[in-house]
Structure formats: C-alpha cells, structure tokens
Recover the amino acids of this structure.
C-alpha cells in the first residue's frame, strides 16, 4: 500500500503535464485560450462583469391568514384602558338615634355623627334628612340604598339589616 500526501500529488500532476507538453512541441507553441465557452458566452460574461449589481429583492412574505391577525386596534379613552376601580368600601352603618323637632329640622345620628354637622364622604354614603323615625341611607351603586330606624345596623358585607332591639335579652 502506498500513501501520497496532497503536496506530492500536486507536484506529480505538474510534472506529468510538463512531460506531456514536451512530447508535443506543436501543442506547446499554441496558446491555450479559454476552455468550454463559446464566443457569445464570453461576451455575455464580460457584460455581466462590468454591469452594476442587480437589486436584491426580499422574498415575498407568507400569506396572512385572518386567524393570525391580532384584534383591530380601536381608540379608547384613558378610563376605558384602565382596569375598573374596585367598588368603594362601605363600613357597617348604624343609626344611633333620631331627634324629631316640631319647629325645625329633624336630626339623625349615624355612626356617631349627626346629620347637621357630620361628613359621611369617608364612609362612601350619603344620609338623607330623617322624615319621621326612619333615616334613608344612599350607598354606592354596587349596594342597595337602605332605610334604617334607630338601633338598626346595615352590614354591607352580608347585605343584611341587624336590629339591636331584637338581639338584646
């Protein structure tokens, strides 16, 4: 078995070509010219070599399927883009008492404040001046408005009215 490295093979090829041209002196005197091309092909190659490069066009995008599209963008107001605010917290509401005046406005005490001087905005309720012995309480939209008598408590968490007089022994 004989092993020839790449350098040796190249040298062997060059020597064999030199020997072949030495055997035919007429072939060595002729110029080699260009192999495998017709004169028309050579003219076309020269034209392409000196022409400006052809513009590169990107491949066409794949067809868009309606299911692949995101939902259309609509113009929304700032309030519509924000998540809805949680409903306001309303603590239990107790009517502590009612004073009925014959010559003036009646007053009710709700959660320890009277309706003439009290501010119920922190409790997210509005108290309507009493008419008779009952007091109407206006609550936020997510709760029903209630009418309470003295000693009654409205629990917004359970949406129930508890009567203190009914609970005492």
């Amino acid at each position: 078995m004989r092993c020839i490295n790449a350098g040796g093979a190249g040298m062997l090829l060059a020597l064999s070509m030199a020997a072949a041209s030495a055997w035919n002196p007429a072939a060595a005197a002729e110029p080699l010219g260009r192999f495998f091309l017709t004169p028309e092909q050579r003219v076309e190659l020269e034209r392409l070599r000196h022409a400006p490069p052809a513009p590169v066009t990107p491949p066409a995008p794949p067809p868009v399927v309606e299911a692949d599209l995101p939902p259309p963008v609509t113009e929304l107001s700032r309030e519509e883009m924000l998540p809805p605010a949680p409903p306001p917290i309303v603590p239990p509401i107790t009517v502590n008492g009612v004073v009925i005046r014959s010559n003036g406005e009646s007053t009710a005490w709700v959660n320890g404040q009277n309706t003439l001087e009290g501010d119920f905005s922190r409790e997210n309720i509005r108290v309507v001046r009493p008419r008779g012995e009952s007091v109407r309480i206006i609550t936020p939209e997510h709760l029903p408005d209630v009418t309470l008598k003295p000693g009654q408590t409205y629990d917004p968490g359970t949406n129930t009215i508890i009567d203190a007089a009914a609970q005492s022994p």
Remarks:
- Residues 93-167 form one domain.
- The radius of gyration is 51 Å.
- DSSP finds five helices and eight strands in the chain.
- The helical segments are 6-23, 25-29, 39-50, 78-81, 164-167.
